[in-house]
Amino acid sequence: MADMLRWIGQAVIYAGMALWLGHFANRPVYTHLPPEQALIKLSVVHGAQRKGECRKRTQEELDAMNPNMRTPYDCPRERLPIAIQVLLDGEVIYDRSIIAAGLARGGSTRAYERFAVASGRHELVARMVDSARTEGYDFERAATIELSPGENFVIDFRAESGGFLFNGKSVTYTPQG
Amino acid sequence: MSFVKRVLRMAFSWLEAGLDRIFTPACNPLYHLGALGFLYYWVVAATGIYLFIFFDTGITEAYGSIDSITYEQWYLGGVMRSLHRYASDGMVAIMMVHMLREFSLDRYRGARWFTWFTGLPVLWMVFAAGISGYWMVWDMLAQYIAIATTEWLDWLPIVGGTIARNFLNPARLDDRFFTLMVFMHIFVPLFLLFVLWIHLQRLTRPVINPPRLLAGGTLLMLLVLSVVKPAESQPPANLDLVPSQIGLDWFYLPAYPLMDMLGNGMVWGLVAFGTLLFVVLPWLPPLRRAAEKAAVVDLANCNGCTRCAEDCPYAAIEMGRRTDGRPFDRQAVVSTDLCVACGICVGSCPTAMPFRRASELIPGIDLPETPIRELRDRVHEAAEGLAGDTRIMVFGCAHGYDASALAGPGVAALRIPCIGMLPPAFIDYVLSRHLAEGVVLAGCSEGECHNRHGVRWTVDRLARARDPMLRKRVPRERIETVWAPLAEGWTHRRRIADFAARLRRLAAEEAAGGPGKAAE
């Protein structure tokens, strides 16, 4: 009888362990993003303009340098900070000035941000200043976007492709005037 | 901290007592947590090798190949996958309970710091291996983990904030990331085995295989769970969508919701704080005076018999070359860094003889803070306070039930650091000198001694299976052993009361010239 109770007890313990493992292996469900929302993701990696002007080296200077080091221009390493602004339906949701990476501030500037927003139609504007200008923007793009629930909408940036790129299911760019 | 430890200790003790009854002390899962961890590891490794044979590395191929394993060969591949997942979860669960229990038992300070400290990389590697495994399925859960992990890593200024860009959209994703994950998922568990080997370096006779019955029950439980609730993938990853409702594995991934709630910086802070606390815990007050407590060798009494080195549970004693010119090959050498002052070596020393009269009672090896000479004096003091015809002398382990609570009319109780510290000659001494009619040895549960081998060696010494053996002349009916968890004070009291009754019967039989008399 005692043995029987012991076996039953063991079965109960093993069943409890199995329930524990089986349940918490994928339950309870975690809601990362409410089903009616979408995500706008801003990701920028861009090298801003140099803080100082490049200077053309003189012939004397070049002659004094090792042959493999003779680059015609002497450019300062430090880059300017980049100002990025994102507006959604006329409201500023991101507005930062970001300094370049590296000890000498000579690397790329990186920005990464997520915005959980309601799905549906939105007016999106992304702007950037990567130079010393004080007025206007070096890059700007606006679009009407239609976000479906759970959509991952990406604001990417590629200077060689003209600046901001909006990656989403429904994007209608606003002509720039 | 001490309060938390005490509460945990009592909670574990109650659990141990309950599981002792259900599983027997020999198969109590709480006494084999480390070994169960190894069992889960081997299940994960074996099933992982099988799954890897059919796994295709690639953005589009990974999900399909796992789906094929899960559904097309559900009877084998599917079961293997489920075993792989549940054994991995079991490993985390067992590891956490193991860590908490070792903490509650105070087995992380003093000489034991090394084993505690090397548990930290084990912890991290198990999590790294598990998380990289989920990544490989490349379903919505994997996508969530991949993005959350890379965003978390990107938070560190040194990383540069560009890893998460790999998951911006499908066009950016590269097969090389999967190659990296596969490499991690194989290399980390392999390296983990090496770290586990280091983890056990300061333990002699480490138990890495659970008893067969326990192993069989655990495997059967995993198998039934795998068949009843097979592990399945979530919908395939799609970087155009955001994983919304995610079935998280809460054993491996509880930190991920925290990243959403608290932010990546805060989670880094929590992880750093937790790691730092884990690392410094052995050196937080109250500190142990390890060097003062470590066993010391008295060469004048050490004949190099090696028993102490063989019985030490922590590899703290080595037999070195003789340095005093006496005609013995070797001598015991104690490493103060490794010694936990359990005194098991004293219990094994043939010179720890309370009968000695010709010279002062100094054994070949002794504890400076609890010398064996002092123990003999305490025995005499305790015996003087005993009265009645069933006088009982209790030797209780300092880590088991508080022996002093057992003292009472006709019962004297002495605490020693570990029951394994008591040389069997002391039992002979107490009985043959008529200092008591009976001797009780009270220690930790039979399944597990606080100092690993104290109970085991004592049982063997009493059974004359291990040196130093209890002499044949000692009447066994006058010895009682109580191996029970800390929480079971009532077991100790009941067994002592029963023993006293037995001694009274013996006395009556002796008076009548019966069997008790013959035992003299």
User: Assembly type of the shown chains?
Assistant: heterodimer
Give the radius of gyration of chain B.
29 Å
Number of helices of chain A: 2
Order of helices and strands of chain A: HEEEHEEEEEEEEE
**What spatial form of chain B do the alpha-carbon principal axes imply?**
elongated
Low-pLDDT windows of residues of chain B = none
**Biggest sheet layout of chain A:** 5 strands, antiparallel
Uncertain residue ranges of chain A: none
Helical content of chain A (DSSP H or I, runs of 4+): 10-25%
Order of helices and strands of chain B: HHHHHHHHHEHHHEHEEHEHEEHEHEHH
Strand content of chain A: 35-45%
Mean pLDDT of chain B: 92
Radius of gyration of chain A: 28 Å
Average of pLDDT of chain A: 93
**Beta strand count of chain A:** 12
Measured by residues with Cβ under 8 Å of the partner chain's Cβ, the largest interface is: A-B, 38 and 47 residues
Major sheet strand order of chain A? 6-5-8-9-12
Class of secondary structure makeup of chain B: alpha/beta
Number of strands of chain B: 9
The structural class of chain A is alpha+beta
Q: Brief overview, please?
A:
The complex is a heterodimer of chains A (177) and B (520). Chain A is of the alpha+beta class.
Could you explain the architecture of this structure?
The complex is a heterodimer of chains A (177) and B (520). Chain A has 177 residues and is α+β, with helices and mostly antiparallel strands. Chain A has 2 helices and 12 strands. In chain A, a hairpin with a 4-residue loop joins strand 10 and strand 11. The longest helix of chain A has 23 residues, at 2-24. The relative contact order of chain A is 0.18. With 520 residues, chain B is α/β, with parallel strands linked by helices. Chain B is 51% helix and 8% strand. Chain B contains 19 helices and 9 strands. Chain B has a 4-stranded parallel sheet, with helices on both faces. A two-stranded antiparallel ribbon of chain B has the order 2-5. The longest helix of chain B has 31 residues, at 74-104. The radius of gyration of chain B is 29 Å and the shape is elongated. The two termini of chain B are 52 Å apart. The relative contact order of chain B is 0.09.
